[in-house]
Write a structure and sequence with these properties.
By secondary structure, the protein is an alpha+beta fold. The chain has one domain (8-107): RNA polymerase II/Efflux pump adaptor protein, barrel-sandwich hybrid domain (OB fold (Dihydrolipoamide Acetyltransferase, E2P), Beta Barrel). The protein has helices at 29-35, 82-85, 89-92, 117-123, and strands at residues 8-9, 14-19, 22-27, 38-42, 49-50, 55-61, 65-69, 74-79, 101-105. It has a six-stranded antiparallel β-sheet. Strands 4-6-7 form a three-stranded antiparallel β-sheet. The protein is globular and about 35 Å long.
């Protein structure tokens, strides 16, 4: 399983990649592996401002449904529309084409409180 050095991670298996004043959020390679085949992604929070760890959507796999949690507080700017037709992008490419939301972070310093790649790797036993 891949854990990328240029990302930050949550205890709940989301990743965040900051790109200027926006950030991309998705689930980790480990999370998609644990969930199995992703069949549906539901994000109804586009345009909403949410706090850290608030639910911004859900992800449905063949065997379960899981909530998606905000890694930091901010506004959900965009849902990855590619996932409507092809939710399996999360299984095949969770860190690039399989991103779930684009967000504007309220306080960029909050990202520093998330797990590094090394800390996340230790958490999942890599």
């Amino acid at each position: 399983m891949k854990v990328l050095e240029n990302l930050k991670y949550t205890q709940d298996d989301e990743w965040i990649r900051v790109d200027g004043d926006v950030a991309y959020v998705g689930i980790t390679d480990y999370a998609q592996h644990e969930l199995g085949d992703i069949v549906f992604v539901d994000v109804t929070s586009e345009g909403s401002s949410l706090d850290k760890e608030e639910v911004f959507g859900s992800i449905e796999a063949v065997k379960t449904v899981a909530d998606l949690l905000m890694p930091v507080a901010g506004e959900v700017l965009e849902f990855n529309a590619e996932l409507e037709a092809n939710p399996a992008l999360i299984n095949t490419n969770p860190y690039d084409e399989g991103w779930i939301i684009k967000m504007k972070i309220n306080n960029p310093a909050d990202v520093n409180e998330l797990l590094t790649a090394a800390q996340y790797s230790e958490k999942i036993g890599l």
